[in-house]
Each structure stands twice: as structure tokens, then as C-alpha cells.
């Protein structure tokens, strides 16, 4: 005898941070499922990238975890001084010029930053019962 049950919904992930946790024109280092990310913010816009420089695959942050930004426009690799644009992660100066950072799709909801493929914790309550629960 076999039984068919609906697959349980994946547990929603917590927010990576609040938008206001990222300094305007600056950066914040966070982890997504043990994967280090760099979040960048300019005004209401937020971008996310894996914390990995395309030049030798080293982290972008310094030993103490700080990621340097310049005039709210570019971030700088602490190891090679490569400069990357906020908007697309493209290296505009340095040893990996023309390469780009690996983007992490994000979404903003109610002032919080989430990985784009996650649901906020409150989403399950808003969804209501599944049709199979009726």
C-alpha cells in the first residue's frame, strides 16, 4: 500500500537584515545558509553579492570583517584593491578588471532584506490553509 501526501512547504528563511542595518553608501557582511554575502546599499536600492573576489577567489572583506566602499559608488576588495560597481558588481579597476562579482538576488519587504527565493516568516500565516488541509 502506498500513500501520497503533499510535500511539506519549505521553512521560510529569516530576513538577512533590515535595510537600515546597511549604511547608506556602505556595506554589510551577512551569511545565507553558511554562504558569506556582501550587501550594498544606496538610498532605497540594495544589492547582494557573494563575498568572493573573482581574482583568486578570496573574500572581499578585511580580516576584521569590514568591506570598504568609496563615495557610495564602488566597493573595494581588501586584498587586491579591485573596485566593483554597486549596480552590477563589475570590476572597473584592478587585477580582475572586466570580471564581475557573483550576484545574490534579493527582495525587500516591509523594510527587511530577504534572499529572493525565500518567504518571510509571516508568509505562512498569510497563505492560510493549503487546499489539501480542508
From TrEMBL:
InterPro entries: Rieske_2Fe-2S, Rieske_2Fe-2S_sf. Pfam families: Rieske. GO terms for molecular function: 2 iron, 2 sulfur cluster binding; metal ion binding. Keywords: 2Fe-2S, Iron, Iron-sulfur, Metal-binding. Residues 14-115 form the Rieske domain. SUPFAM superfamilies: ISP domain. This is Rieske domain-containing protein. It comes from Achromobacter anxifer.
Amino acid at each position: 500500500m502506498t500513500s501520497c501526501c503533499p510535500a511539506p512547504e519549505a521553512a521560510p528563511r529569516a530576513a538577512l537584515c533590515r535595510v537600515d542595518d546597511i549604511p547608506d553608501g556602505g556595506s554589510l557582511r551577512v551569511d545565507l545558509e553558511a554562504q558569506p554575502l556582501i550587501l550594498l546599499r544606496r538610498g532605497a536600492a540594495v544589492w547582494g553579492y557573494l563575498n568572493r573576489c573573482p581574482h583568486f577567489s578570496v573574500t572581499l572583506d578585511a580580516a576584521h570583517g569590514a568591506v570598504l566602499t568609496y563615495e557610495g559608488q564602488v566597493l573595494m576588495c581588501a586584498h587586491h584593491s579591485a573596485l566593483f560597481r554597486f549596480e552590477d558588481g563589475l570590476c572597473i579597476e584592478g587585477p580582475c578588471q572586466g570580471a564581475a562579482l557573483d550576484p545574490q538576488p534579493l527582495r525587500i519587504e516591509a523594510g527587511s532584506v530577504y534572499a529572493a527565493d525565500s518567504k518571510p516568516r509571516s508568509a505562512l500565516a498569510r497563505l492560510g490553509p493549503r487546499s489539501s488541509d480542508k
